[in-house]
Amino acid sequence: MNLGWFSIVRLGTVQMAIGAIVVLMTSTLNRLMIVELAMPAVLPGFLVALHYGIQITRPNWGFHSDTGGRRATWVIGGMAILGSGAFLAALAIPVLETNFTEGLLISVVAYALIGLGVGASGTSLLALLATLTAPRRRAAAATITWLMMIAGIALTAGASGAMLDPYSHALLLKVVGFVVLIAFVLTVIAIFGIEKQPLETEDTETMSFAEGIKEIWAESGARNFSIFVFLSMTAYFMQELILEPYAGLVFGFTPGDSTSLSGAQNGGVFLGMISVGILCTGLNLGSLRSWVVAGCTGSALSLTFIAALGLGGTATQLYIAVVSLGFFNGMFAVGAIGSMMSLAGEGRSDREGTRVGIWGAAQAIAAGFGGLVGAAMVDILRIALKEEAAAYGTVFLLEAALFIVSSTLALRIISTRPVSAGLVPGE
Q1: How would residue 355 be classed by pLDDT, with cut points 50, 70 and 90?
Q2: How far is it, in rounded angstroms, from Cα 391 to Cα 393?
Q3: What's the domain range around 127?
Q4: Predicted confidence (pLDDT) at residue 378 exceeds the cutoff of 80
């Protein structure tokens, strides 16, 4: 069975629901802890890092979705865990205000559940897409699902912000509870009936998780792609915590200006994703590998430009460079995700979930590692170099170098096969 476009959009709704819940944790609750509760930024930073770290369990979820017969069950179960963790995290906010130790304990449990939920639902969802999407539609499927995730993040951030004014703890619980409920209902509706029949798996009763991981890791393609994912995603996330401070310290941006800059970057990501979806799938231009390499190379050039602007650039030039970075990041992301879905089906059959899980774990570790390393290096270099622009510029150049290394690796491990175009009538 190959998924039609409507079914791909339905599965994109699940990704949108995941993004809607996660943004509440990484944005809204982050702000509440720092501003309303006047707590150090390291606290929400630790909790977000915990949620990434827990996702090292993704290979386990992928393996179980491979051998469990139906992936939809794991998607729905993971969303239930994610929603429970999100509501528990919101419950921890008023507790933190009155009893820090108890509130912190609740928060740790909550963010651990969030990590588990994202791992279980997200990994199984991508494995389902990789299993049921025709090769020629995978780049478009990647574009659709990620654009819908961005839409879920943007809509939830905007709507929840408006609904939380004027703020109260009771209102927070109502808003989070509403988002969680809607996300879960949408997931159940979207996933219902997608799998017409259970997966037919081999060695379900005899193969252990450890044996399954060892088997996939022995595949050179899966192993090399894991290294590519880690390197490229480390580069991707290194600027996440330092770009806005760079704009403020070096270019004098106000908090509102830097927020606008971040929005412009996300707009660039959106355009990059759409462009690859149209050019690669709609017009059959280039292979997934060519778009991954172009995205990595363009990201490296944009970061080099951003670093150079610290020596005397203008705010307008910084906006242009940041939008360019977002555009090439989006191009790289869609190409990489499409490549992942193609590679997931190569090698031993019925192991798409395990492969996606391994790559998802590499991405999650890189997200936490990249952000932490980028911020720590800036702190060290600001002391050593005693110059804001030089400190931030050095980290941006290191990030650019990682993107170049990633593009070189992509040339070796990603296929040059073009993606055939075609919206086939009636499918």
Answers
A1: confident
A2: 5
A3: 1-192
A4: yes
